[in-house]
Design goal:
Layout: E1 5-10, H1 14-25, E2 30-36, H2 39-49, E3 53-56, H3 65-72, E4 80-84, H4 89-95, E5 100-103, H5 110-124, H6 132-139, H7 145-150, E6 163-168, H8 172-180, E7 189-194, H9 200-211, E8 215-218, E9 224-225, E10 229-232, E11 238-244, E12 247-253, H10 265-275, E13 280-284, H11 293-301, E14 305-309, H12 319-325, E15 331-333, H13 338-348
Parallel strand pairs: 1-2, 1-3, 3-4, 4-5, 6-7, 6-13, 7-10, 8-10, 13-14, 14-15
Antiparallel strand pairs: 9-12, 11-12
């Protein structure tokens, strides 16, 4: 018999906490080893309960979820799944070491919420907890973009590459940031699909836009793909590239889920394979499941250069592993080296 996943629930709402404990306890895959009424309570109970994984709200009285992550994770690196309402602090919490997040359900959404949360708990218990100092050290790794620029490389003009497509899931918000923050302002157009619910993609795009040298926005149907701009697939819609004259634009439509997701990396990558062919670079980053693997294989067969994040630097080595296993990846690289690989490929064109 498979060992149950030991879960600790942290939430200051009595009603929600009770419902969540009862719902998880009713599933044979999980054992709720305890709960905490706030983050300080969780800090005291964690060494005693020794859960495999925790669920945690962010905004709580006294010690917040953010303070818990910063204080406790360095000594007790347990995977944390955030369960939060629409809140920009989710991204601060992910930067502080949380593994993933689920949006708190509204009326009529509890069944879908539970399915989503249980999937993330099942995968997340084996996730690699990346602490802020690890992220900072990785971000500080030397990048050779400047040397490529000095060598006469003009991104998006002389490189023969006019599109970069990136896909990610669990752990992807920080992984994407780590990659794109190291790109110079002059880059080919970039399109990104990160598994994320509606509402959060707009906030995430704003966060990237504040930090990166490139302009970043949540994509809208018909937006033109152009040098210096990153378009992020909106939560709840499928995004693909389409031909627009000599260039490309994005189509964002309300369609069925593909590979279990909307937006789906497979949808984006398949469109890139069909439209941009060998004038594209594909990057698949950390994430659970296999979304993006089939689309990346189509990209490689169409002549695109494809990059997969390696096992050791992934929070969850799922999507990049599946892509690698089927031969979709031209080159594997550690997260901190992916910007160099991209820039090197652009310089060779």
């Amino acid at each position: 018999m498979q060992q149950k996943i030991r879960v600790m629930v942290v939430d200051d709402s009595l009603v929600f906490r009770t419902w969540l404990v009862q719902s998880l306890s009713a599933d044979p895959r999980f054992e709720v080893v305890g709960y905490a009424v706030n983050a300080l309570d969780a800090k005291n109970k964690l060494p005693l309960l020794k859960p495999d994984i925790m669920t945690m709200d962010i905004e709580m009285p006294g010690m917040t979820g953010m303070e818990f992550l910063k204080e406790v994770l360095p000594s007790h690196p347990v995977p944390v799944i955030l369960v939060s309402s629409l809140n920009v602090r989710v991204f601060d919490a992910l930067a502080a070491g949380a593994v993933d997040f689920v949006r708190k359900p509204e009326e009529g959404q509890r069944d879908a919420f539970l399915r989503n949360l249980m999937t993330k708990l099942t995968i997340g218990k084996n996730a690699r907890v990346r602490l802020p100092q690890q992220n900072a050290a990785s971000a500080a790794a030397p990048v050779t973009a400047a040397s490529h620029l000095r060598s006469g490389f003009v991104p998006g003009v002389s490189s023969g590459i006019d599109l970069i497509a990136i896909g990610a899931s669990t752990g992807g918000t920080e992984a994407i940031l780590e990659v794109v923050r190291q790109f110079p302002a002059k880059m080919p157009g970039i399109v990104i699909t990160q598994h994320m619910p509606p509402g959060f993609t707009a906030m995430y795009a704003e966060r990237l836009n504040r930090i990166c040298k490139l302009e970043v926005k949540e994509a809208q149907h018909g937006d033109k793909v152009r040098p210096g701009l990153i378009l992020l697939a909106p939560g709840g819609l499928q995004m693909r590239i389409v031909r627009m004259g000599a260039g490309y634009s994005v189509s964002c439509t309300n369609e069925d889920k593909v590979s279990g997701h909307r937006p789906s990396v497979d949808v984006l990558f398949t469109s890139v394979a069909s439209i941009a062919k060998n004038r594209a670079i594909g990057v698949i980053l950390t994430g659970m499941g296999a979304d993006g693997a089939a689309g990346m294989l189509r990209m490689r067969k169409a002549g695109a250069f494809t990059i997969g994040q390696d096992r050791d630097s992934c929070v969850v080595y799922g999507m990049p592993m599946e892509a690698y296993k089927i031969g979709a990846v031209c080159q594997q690289a550690a997260l901190s080296n992916i910007p160099q690989v991209v820039m090197g490929r652009l310089a060779k064109q």
